[in-house]
Amino acid sequence: MADNKAKRGGADRALIALTEKYEVAYWSKKFKVTPAKLKYAVKKVGHSAKKVEAYIKLQKHRASDKSRIALGEAYEVRYWSKKFKITPARLKAAVAAAGHSSKKVEAYLAAQKAAKKTKKAKKTVKRKKTA
Fold this sequence. Notes:
With 131 residues, the chain is an all-alpha fold.
């Protein structure tokens, strides 16, 4: 549907007209996405600028959060504790110590495991010497 240039009120500003190149350019720049992503979002949620903005924010949030551990979400705690093969309590402690980055938590857990191995090896050496 072509944009009615006679209408200039809030109702017209709240809608995204994909048939108008200048509107696609404006909204793409405003939401900081490519025109193709804007068109996809409009087809997905409708022409409302508010709905499109919320959809785009959600997609950006999901993309940036793939490597971060959100302890507030139960499914995230289950996923990461299963991935690292630890209990949820240990995962929460590791996140508290290393931060929410999955790479940092993985490195922290690897360092803990290595420290535990060296400590265990030292114990067995002491036992052999005393026996």
